[in-house]
Amino acid sequence: MVTKSVLSSEVIINCSTEKVWKVISSQNNLNNCHPFCKANTFQKWGKVGARDTIKYYNNLVLNRYFIEWREGKGYELIIVKGNKNLGKVTWEILKLKKDISKLKISLNIYPEIALKKYPSCIVPLIKATYFLPNMKKYLLSVVRGFKYYIETGNDVQRNQFDKNPMFSI
Length: 169
Hints:
This protein is α+β, with helices and mostly antiparallel strands. It has helices at residues 17-24, 30-33, 111-114, 123-152; strands spanning 5-13, 37-44, 51-56, 61-70, 74-81, 84-97, 100-109. A hairpin with a 6-residue loop joins strand 2 and strand 3 (51-56). The longest helix has 30 residues, at 123-152. The model has no long low-confidence stretch (mean pLDDT 94).
């Protein structure tokens, strides 16, 4: 049986929602902000139908297909490896005050699909002790990367907020 797991992470960013939107909606933005991204290249950009590829430091390659685009507020995309839909990601920007915003990333993921190569009898154990905790750490590192880049203007470095065994080496 395939079950969906929902994880999310958020950060407060000291800038306007307009600036956060400008960064998260720019093509190849992961190259500047993502601590596990070796390369982010777009095939088509802007609005629904946009798509790009992310190559991680451990050489995992995933494709992102944008299925909803809410100008100035966020977007939704699906993550695909080969022909397998691994999950849906929602990026949201909320205005808290004039120059204070919240960036939230939510992930609806299907661990059993991602862990399909393992014997089904051990998948629940891997899911609970390795997969979901590392995905939660991943999301926290990504939102922290965007906060760092937006607030400082400096590119995020490889594994800047800690290594993640699922995405870095």
